[in-house]
Design goal:
The chain has 191 residues and is mainly beta. It folds into 2 domains: 82 residues, PAS domain (Beta-Lactamase, 2-Layer Sandwich), CATH 3.30.450; 85 residues, 2-Layer Sandwich (Beta-Lactamase). The chain is 15% helix and 40% strand. The protein contains 4 helices and 11 strands. The strands form 2 sheets. Strands 1, 2, 3, 4, 5 and 6 form a 6-stranded antiparallel beta sheet that branches. A 5-stranded antiparallel beta sheet has the order 8-7-11-10-9. A hairpin with a 2-residue loop joins strand 9 and strand 10. The radius of gyration is 19 Å and the shape is elongated. 28% of the residues are buried.
């Protein structure tokens, strides 16, 4: 984990969901089976190649992370295992803040399949069930031909300028929202 400080855990599992390698090493003290986990079932039974789960609170370390997993396929294409990493949202918070899009901006990753929040800054435990599925840009980006959307949207009763983009090769949409008041703040205080 020294070289992946943003990762809270890493598993390599076989086709039955039994961990054959895990980090940190403390996780290896007892047998680990993840066959009941949503990410494992999606990779094995739904034949999903990449899985990005919604943000969740990890009870053991009391931090918000999201699962990222990829299937391992044999030469015949059959599922032989998976690699899973629990990614800490704090890593993305540093990345999002480095974008310097404005103090009132919201930057986030949402699942392209259902609009579930993966990571967002700011993000509180109360926002873990947030979804973008009801917002106009999500409906537009549901069309695989549409790669990006920009326009105005109402969120929480306030107008926001939104830029949304579907990420190539990943089931994710990245969204940047900036409140209308902040967009027009440099124009004499009125809009």
């Amino acid at each position: 984990m020294k070289y992946l400080p943003e990762a809270s855990e890493l598993f390599v599992v076989d086709r039955a969901g039994d961990a054959v390698a895990a980090a940190p090493l403390a996780l290896q003290s007892s047998p680990i089976n993840v066959s009941d986990r949503k990410w494992f079932r999606a990779l094995r039974y739904e034949k999903v190649e990449h899985y990005v789960g919604r943000a969740l609170m990890v009870r053991a370390i009391h931090s918000i992370t999201f699962p990222v997993a990829r299937s391992i396929r044999g030469s015949d294409g059959n599922f032989v295992g998976a690699v899973h990493v629990g990614v800490g949202v704090t890593f993305l918070a540093h990345l999002f803040h480095s974008l310097d899009v404005g103090s009132g901006a919201i930057v986030g990753f949402y699942r392209a399949t259902d609009g579930a929040v993966i990571a967002r800054v700011p993000l509180t435990e109360g926002q873990l069930n947030e979804t973008a599925a009801t917002l106009p840009y999500f409906a537009a980006l549901a069309n695989p031909e549409v790669k990006s959307w920009m326009g105005w949207s109402q969120n929480d009763g306030e107008g926001h300028l939104v830029s949304a983009r579907r990420l190539d090769g990943w089931p994710l949409i990245v969204i940047v929202r900036l409140p209308k008041g902040e967009v027009y703040s440099g124009y004499g205080g009125g809009y």
